[in-house]
Amino acid sequence: MKKTLFKMTMGLGIMVLAAQQVQARTCGPREDILKRLVETYGETRRGIGIARQGAVMEIYASDQTGSWTITVTLPDGITCLVASGQAFEVMAEALPPNV
Question: Does the pTM exceed 0.85?
């Protein structure tokens, strides 16, 4: 039991360190992140929403390349890249009713 607990604790510690390293590369001042999205990828804001604890979620995309990025900006002004991909399309279809 002690060995299992030790392994779980070590695994959790490694995951926390890895998350901190990822955050260091994918988060920064909002102005810097947005400048990179516009200048490097030609993306503009396409959607916005409020998340937990006052965070703002935004979707950026490019009509020319189809690239897209989802960002989250925290109340302290730090913006993090959450996800990105290709083949962005605007859809204007109605959502199905709640079941």
Answer: no
